[in-house]
């Protein structure tokens, strides 16, 4: 039995009527840019994130870029972040004119190591971006403390609905930073039928700045207080996301169940390290990512068996050719470099059947002769 890494058609089949009805309502109203569906989604995502403000935008990359701009980050500034993340994190820093400063990761969670943030701060540091990789929140309270007053952006593109207990209180993804950013790329736990993004904040001034920045620097049509961008979440995507949002927690719970099933099945494989979730965290498992020194051979074996998998990410950002000007060399972020050679993500989407999970498990165990 072939098992894809992700099967969006299986999810769509369970919600098709709701999504089509929501789309047709927008089509019938012929109001496609911003409008009520976007405002309603912003209200709902703000409530989920336990913050007063949410601002929709065109995509998750723009969400990071607009967050940086709202914090005043620009030419000649530095932004500390992780090298083990999707390119958008570092690319947005570069595209506002700032310099990415990469610090290494915690080898267990793959998230930025808070202890390395403070030593990286200079007089030019204007922000820190913590990434919630694979659906598990970074230690946002530790990163914030280590930032020593420097604003923190939480790149929560992979973690909407995830949470972390901090001092006995549940903190939601995006809540604990100056600005949290989300992506609604179709493969996310809450994915649209195209691109989309959102920013959340508890700061009124940052909210106003973000609202201006997404619409050419304007809050009143044709009156521009700053130079902004055209980065609006369209109403069709908002309608899709609103139809899907009530299912998010159930889908994430199913991913956790699938992850636990894998954990138990791989527990005796000494050659495989299963995902480590900090006790304070509730992950949404955007990916189920194992580690093994035999990664490439295992992936080839799985492909031959019809099992989908992927490597997130095969080359850390500090070693990407486009960032050669930064002067990083191999060995400067050893944990990120080692992870890039060992990680492999397996199917974990909510609609997986027990038979499909068993197919994946059998293929992995078969590779190791177990």
Fold and architecture overview:
The structure is a single chain. By secondary structure, this protein is α/β, with parallel strands linked by helices. It folds into two domains: 8-103 and 110-246, 3-Layer(aba) Sandwich (Aspartate Aminotransferase, domain 2), CATH 3.40.640; 248-367, Aspartate Aminotransferase, domain 1. The chain has twelve helices and 14 strands. Strands 1-9-8-5-4-2-3 form a seven-stranded mixed beta sheet, sandwiched between helices. Helix 3 packs across helix 4 and helix 3 (60-70) packs across helix 7. The longest helix has 22 residues, at 8-29. The protein is globular and about 65 Å long. The mean pLDDT is 97.
Brief synopsis:
This protein has helices at 8-29, 36-49, 60-70, 87-95, 117-120, 140-146, 204-213, 235-244, 248-266, 295-304, 334-342, 354-367; strands at residues 53-57, 78-81, 99-102, 125-131, 152-155, 163-166, 169-172, 179-183, 197-201, 218-220, 223-224, 281-282, 288-291, 343-346. By secondary structure, it is an alpha/beta fold. It folds into two domains: 8-103 and 110-246, Type I PLP-dependent aspartate aminotransferase-like (Major domain) (Aspartate Aminotransferase, domain 2, 3-Layer(aba) Sandwich), CATH 3.40.640; 248-367, Aspartate Aminotransferase, domain 1 (Alpha-Beta Complex).
